[in-house]
Fold this sequence. Notes:
Chain A has helices at residues 12-30, 37-44, 48-55, 58-83, 91-105, 107-117, 129-142, 152-173, 184-200. By secondary structure, chain A is mainly alpha-helical. Chain A is elongated, with a radius of gyration of 21 Å. Chain A binds chain B through residues 30-33, 109, 112-113, 115-118, 122-124, 127-129, 153-154, 157, 160-161, 164-165, 167-169, 171-172, 175, 177-179, 181-182, 186-187, 190-191, 194, 198, and chain B through 30-33, 109, 112-113, 115-118, 122-124, 127-129, 153-154, 157, 160-161, 164-165, 167-169, 171-172, 175, 177-179, 181-182, 186-187, 190-191, 194, 198.
Amino acid sequence: xxxxxxxxxxxxxxxxxxxxxxxxxxxxxxxxxxxxxxxxxxxxxxxxxxxxxxxxxxxxxxxxxxxxxxxxxxxxxxxxxxxxxxxxxxxxxxxxxxxxxxxxxxxxxxxxxxxxxxxxxxxxxxxxxxxxxxxxxxxxxxxxxxxxxxxxxxxxxxxxxxxxxxxxxxxxxxxxxxxxxxxxxxxxxxxxxxxxxxxxxx
Amino acid sequence: xxxxxxxxxxxxxxxxxxxxxxxxxxxxxxxxxxxxxxxxxxxxxxxxxxxxxxxxxxxxxxxxxxxxxxxxxxxxxxxxxxxxxxxxxxxxxxxxxxxxxxxxxxxxxxxxxxxxxxxxxxxxxxxxxxxxxxxxxxxxxxxxxxxxxxxxxxxxxxxxxxxxxxxxxxxxxxxxxxxxxxxxxxxxxxxxxxxxxxxxxx
DNA sequence: ATAGTTATCTACAACATTGTCAACAACAGG
DNA sequence: CCTGTTGTTGACAATGTTGTAGATAACTAT
Lengths: 202, 202
């Protein structure tokens, strides 16, 4: 006779959170195609119909996953930017910190993957314009009384460039897909210096 | 009675090439998970066992695909670099041209996808060191008699930065996943200018 | 022509995955 | 203690995908 396991009953919110955690781990490790209901369910310790009960369908699960990850990250970026002292030479440090965390959490990989897969919320969901506007305001302030006011596009590109490259770097470094000779930390320092000196120049 | 279609028989090489073309298109459009034997076979106009006959297995097909794409791209980059006049201000133009073609061919997407998926040949297969060494030699030559000789890491990073960002940009621009306000061409010009002025400075 | 090679096909097997359904059980409120 | 709600489950259906096997037919070489 099968030893019946005592059935555990979580609250709907707890169950959803646990399932989303497991699904996101699968997403980070193996991409959207790696999110299989049976596997996710097994990770959480439930049967796969339970997952379907909470999210309706596989697509519903992925949508919920994307939404949560996007909101989390957006909040983190906002917090990092607002908490930072308004000095130009900290911009690179902010970006570095934010994307270091995106690397650790695996969300750099997740977002790149989702963007490639065509999910609506992918990288385009990460709107850089608010950040660029914030940085631009600092630049304008800092340049008061000087000759030329900075152009917004220049500031935006100065934010976009490290965002793009560090996102990809974070996504690929994590899996060790980069040349072993490559020193990521050194590159980030170099990039920070490049952006910094560019923003400071007239 | 079924109207029997006249069976076409290609040479092994032609068949393999046609199948690889179809598979690569699927890879670019939908990622590795989008490579389904039946679909690929249907695209070529054969039955799926024919694909298995030529590549042994699905994995064999993907391996062959990656190898071909990698060699093709490597050759293209080499050709572009060697054909260019050895002036520093053309470096950005070279990179721009190479990655514009990677965008058009969809290989930016393919490589990013493969790198994320963990395929051995992914982005790490695209070795940037030869290119960096070539550029560095030009820099050294150009600086003869000046004060400080350029550091190789600085040159390497100057190649890596546009490579990384343009690769991702090419991968995402193609699918229209970027903010509609974003002007890719303008960004590339800006980036070229940034790299150029950095390489020229002492 | 004739025979050998092999690219190609149809049919089938094996397996994985998503989704449905009815029943069970844990917990809350009466 | 009883009852309703609902989180949870096992069994099953439907479908899709990879891979196998034997037969067929197109091309090549003699």
